[in-house]
Amino acid sequence: MNTKIFYRFYIVFLISFFYFATCFAGNKDEIKIALNADPETINILEYKTSRVLTPIIDAIHQRVLGEPDLKTGMRKLELAESVKVMENKKDVLLKLKKGVKFHTGDPLTVHDVKFTIEQCQDPRNANTFAGTLDEIESMEIVDDYTLLFHFYEPFAPWQEVMRVGIASKKYYEKVGRKIFRKNPVGSGPFCFVKRRIGEYIILEGVKNHPGYNGEFKRIKLMIIADPVTRVNMLKTGEVDMIYEILPHQIKELKKYNKLSIKSAVIPSLYYLSIKPSLFPVIKDKNVRNAITHAINRQEIIDKIYQKQGYPLYMWANKGELGYDPKIIIKYNPQKARDLLKKSSYKPGTTIYITYTSAMPNSSIVALMIQHYLKNIGMTVKLQQIEYGAYLTYARDGDKRAGHMALSVFTTEIDPQVRLMMSMISDAAYCYYKDRPNQKKMDDLILAQAGETDPQKRLKILAEIHHINYDDPGNITLYGLNLIYAMNNRINYSWKEGSPYMRDLYRIKLNK
């Protein structure tokens, strides 16, 4: 063999060997996680609802109240030493823990809490929390560690205003809005180091922080939008963890014994949005009840989603206040046929079902639902619409949205936002405005919104769900598990009940 050719081959071999060795060995000081998209911002004051933004914000900032207890619905104390609803039911007294410091070394006080909330309320920041925070009439500073919230009226989801990550007022005033937007400062277990838009974000552990385990120095959050690329990068060791894996990718990942594949039950709500007020053909509740009995939810989960999900039968997700596991609607095609015969539906009348990219595998789910409804005697046609166009049609009450549509609702533990957006008669996304007992439904939704006693509120929510069960305004289908995977360098468990990747400090290096 020619000596030059041999040496060229040898050099290429060495470069390749060291590249792959580096990938698989990893940097013991750095954990690499693939984010599914580039976050709109890294600034809590301009927070947008986003699965990719939340883990970053939560790592940098601490909140007054943390994650909810799924049994009681009460959020756990994080920065708060105590919170108390006052006798008038309109005011909430907050006492902060002392000794908490920002990454700058400045103490965290209620001045920072008040400042953060006011910034989030500011329209120029277009913050997703603003709608909830606007329920606050004013905030009264009692002392550096005591703050009194005055609400306009009793507000049941008052805890939601205290889940905003707290920013440093002093730092913001020192550097100004422009610099703060690019270099946020909080009091969390990780501090912000660097961002390259569209490429990555680097966070570094804060020494001596009670929430930082010190097992690794930094986290590199890499922006990898394509799901196939994310899987391939996990297999080659270029990233340590990926999440929101599609069910059909599990089989491929299982071929690699150095990978751990996990799933978590998270708040998730997929449903058929139906529009009785727009289409008389589905106004008869017997038609809607026939549809809900005709759909085999478990079969959809098993066949399309590889058993990574669970059926839902009420207008609530599994981790939500008011969810009742005893409510079950059995798959019963014969009952569905009987209900349809009793109804005003005339055989041959076409029902349009719309599907979009919002639901995973929506085209296949739509085909299965079409089959189920054909089986009971309904004529169904499918139409695909671009998601943005569908949202516009749905918001405007445009009939081009179709009689029904496969939809998803981002869910939290508190149902307030969804009830106000979808069930009260003046809501933009309420499609059953002329329900026979709509006045009662409206009154109940408003009553739960102002009920600060948790047990009394649960009773009101139960009554709302009972009315909707008898005469459904939407047909709930299922929730999906979150599937994630990691290599054998690390160990991490997704927090059950959370739709977001939280508590990055809980990642541990395997020894």
Can you tell me about this structure?
This protein has 16 helices and 21 strands. With 511 residues, it is α+β, with helices and mostly antiparallel strands. Among the domains are: 62-175, Dipeptide-binding Protein, domain 1 (Alpha-Beta Complex); 270-480, Dipeptide-binding Protein, domain 3, CATH 3.10.105.10. The strands form 6 sheets. Strands 14-18-13-17-15-16 form a 6-stranded mixed sheet, covered by helices on one side. The chain is globular, with a radius of gyration of 26 Å. The two termini are 44 Å apart.
Structural class: alpha+beta
Beta-strand content bin: 15-25%
Q: How many strand units?
A: 21
Q: Which fold name corresponds to the CATH topology of the domain at 270-480?
A: Dipeptide-binding Protein, domain 3
- Structural shape: globular
Our Rg estimate from Cα atoms comes to 26 Å
Helix share, percent: 25-40%
Helices, by number, come to 16
Strand order, biggest sheet?
Answer: 14-18-13-17-15-16
CATH class assignment of the domain at 270-480: Alpha Beta
Low-confidence stretches: 9-26
Termini Cα gap: 44 Å
What do we call the CATH homologous superfamily of the domain at 270-480?
A: Dipeptide-binding Protein, Domain 3
- Overall pLDDT metric: 90
CATH architecture of the domain at 270-480: Roll
- Biggest pleated-sheet summary: 6 strands, mixed
SSE blueprint:
Elements: H1 3-25, E1 30-35, H2 54-60, E2 65-68, E3 75-77, E4 80-85, E5 91-96, H3 110-121, H4 130-133, E6 136-143, E7 146-151, H5 169-175, H6 177-182, E8 190-196, E9 200-205, E10 218-223, H7 227-236, E11 241-243, H8 250-253, E12 259-264, E13 270-274, H9 285-294, H10 297-304, E14 309-311, H11 333-342, E15 350-355, H12 362-375, E16 379-384, H13 387-396, E17 404-408, H14 416-422, H15 438-449, H16 454-470, E18 474-480, E19 482-487, E20 490-491, E21 508-509
Parallel strand pairs: 1-10, 15-16, 15-17
Antiparallel strand pairs: 2-3, 4-5, 5-7, 6-7, 8-9, 9-10, 11-19, 12-19, 13-17, 13-18, 14-18, 20-21
